[in-house]
Amino acid sequence: MMKLSYHETAGGKLRKPLVLTTAFLIILLAIFFSAYWDLILYADNPAKSDPAKAVFVVARGQNFSATADNLYRSGLIKNPYKFRLLARIRGFEKQVQAGEYLLSPDMSPNTILGILVQGKVNLHKITIPEGSNIHQIAAIATEAGFRAKEEFIQAATNAEFALKKGIAADTFEGYLFPDTYYFPKEATPETMISKMVERFWSAFRPQWKKRSKELGLTIHEVVTLASIIEKETGVAFERSIISSVFHNRLKKGMRLESDPTVIYGLKNFDGNLTRKHLSTRTPYNTYKIKGLPIGPIANPGKASLEAALYPADTDYLFFVSKRDTTHQFSTNLKDHNKAIRKYQLRR
Q: Packing angle between helix 149-156 and helix 134-143, nearest 10 degrees?
């Protein structure tokens, strides 16, 4: 008797399981491709057409499920499950970076996921004016929403940290370059200070280092002198002239007698500089000490650094404020006293 093989049929009875299995696979494939296509559509379609951006925070150590749920609750995505599935398929579940983001509902899930993975955090702008000191910069950073003022001051007066950044001083005073910066909300004082110092070294040209040697000054002394020039005048054309006065006095062994240096060395200065202040000895009081103070009294800009290195060619030894932001310069004490009577005493 002839036996039937596995693929042969006896009245069609053996073909049914094959047909059912094939049909089941087709249905599964149809479901898979339908779900996949649905996910593709989801990935490229925003939650709604609302361009208004909102702050969204991914906490450090936060798991992806919590991030997806928070996005959903914030109205930034429609479906947290699909968002998690999208991230899993793309291998991004563990690549989301902590930080503060600006997101809007009219961004697609793909776009939002890309922003979170690339760490395109929201940056906060701070502007450091020329002539600001460490305490003023700390206040500016605090007002912009960064760490407490005390934390910034502590980092900015850390001698070990300064040495690591190539600064042979006890503080970063003078090296926090005045400019506009953008930092993420979670930026630490160390991160902010490092960026400002990096900007300083970028601005301090190689030829300036050579020039400082020609003048017989260290870079720290140049920065110190530049900081005094910065505080003595805000008028651009006067910087090199003021610089010439200080260079001339240094060459003659005369005290610099700069009021801003006295003020910097005082605690809780109330804005009224007195004779007692001028006679109080501090490491910064250039009425009492010879030469430059022990360090900068502010953070000078590029123009003041250049003026310190390239003073005007003058014989001036004195200057007095004319009360209109400019100064009267003199080569001798007699003319200087006349200028004081004219512009300060109004005689």
A: 140
- In SS3 terms, 56-85 reads as EEECCCCCHHHHHHHHHHCCCCCCHHHHHH
Question: What per-residue confidence (pLDDT) applies to 39?
Answer: 66
Determine the angle formed by the axes of helices 239-252 and 302-309, rounding to 10 degrees: 40
Residue 29 CA to residue 27 CA, distance in Å, equals 5
How much is the pTM?
Answer: 0.81
Q: What's the fold here for domain 123-203?
A: Dna Ligase; domain 1 (3.30.1490)
Helix crossing, 189-203 with 149-156: angle to 10°? 50
> Buried (b) or exposed (e) across 307-323, using 16+ Cβ within 10 A?
bbbebbeeebbbbbbee
Structure tokens belonging to residue 214: 């020609």
Q: Is 103 within 8 Å of 54 (Cβ atoms)?
A: yes
Average pLDDT, the chain: 90
Q: Highest-confidence range of 9-18, 35-44, 165-174, 266-275, by mean pLDDT?
A: 165-174
Residue 226's closest CA among 291, 298, 312?
298
User: Boundaries of CATH 3.30.1490.480 in the chain?
Assistant: 54-118
Q: How far apart are CA 106 and CA 43, in angstroms?
A: 12
Span 52-90, pLDDT tens digits: 999 999 999 999 999 999 999 999 999 999 999 999 998
CATH topology of domain 54-118: Dna Ligase; domain 1 (3.30.1490)
